[in-house]
Amino acid sequence: MHTAIQVINPNSSRAVTAGIDAALAPLRMAGGPDIRCLTLAEGPPGVVTQLDVQSVAVPLAALADSLSAQSAAYVIACYSDPGLHVLRERLSQPVLGIGECGVLTAMTLGERFGVIAILDASIPRHLRTYAAMGVTGRFAGELAIGLNVQELAEQARTLARMKDIGKRLRDERGADVIVMGCAGMAAYRDELQQSLGIPVVEPTQAAVGMAIARVQLNWHGG
Predict the structure, then answer these.
(1) Residue 2 has pLDDT above 70, yes or no
(2) How far apart are CA 10 and CA 38, in angstroms?
(3) What is the 3-state secondary structure (H, E, C) of 158-188?
């Protein structure tokens, strides 16, 4: 029976998956679909390069296929949306990428969105996505905190850098809403939003919220 929203972390970090799972607690409700968080064991420690993005598409598709009988929807829990169109092509259920959903949600909360990336190397790849989405007119900028996925677990340093970058995006680039550009940042949303005083979008929450609506309202499409 198709009952669960499968939230798949395409890197191999179980700590990142645990953080995502905790961040989704407010979206678990009586009468709603089951929300399950999974780790792609074959994935790299972090999805950082274009090679990482493309290398996880096939194992992601295999995992999604194996879960199809019990899945109402899928969420790819990586800001680069690896394998998004591969899964959409193969599966009848809704497939949502957190990068796309995070940006779309941000544009409902403000006029100009800024993005906090983990590494400078990720930014050109993200810029290509914004251009393909046609949203560059609403894009304030993207800056990196200079930490890799594993280092995000160092809470004090990570939060301090995110606050600093968030303030720069707000004050220097004119962002009135911030998107957290990595699923590994999930634990820091509430503190960051309180510090910045503007909306902060955690993209996996945004994507799962959309998936719940798709499932509950029986909306179909890609």
Answers:
(1) no
(2) 9
(3) HHHHHHHHHHHHHHCCCCCEEEECCHHHHHH
Helix, strand and coil in the chain, % to nearest 5 = 50, 15, 30
String of DSSP letters for 47-70: --SHHHHHHTHHHHHHHHHHTGGG
pLDDT at 117 (0 to 100) = 96
Tokens representing residue 181 in the block: 């550009």
Segment 82-105 mean pLDDT: 96
Residue 138, both tokens? 């609403």
Domains and CATH numbers, the chain: 4-97+204-217 (3.40.50.12500), 100-202 (3.40.50.12500)
Residue bearing tokens 């905790």: 22
Provide the phi-psi class of 43: left if phi over 0, else alpha when psi is between -120 and 50, else beta. Answer: beta
Residue 33 clears pLDDT 60, i.e. is over it: yes
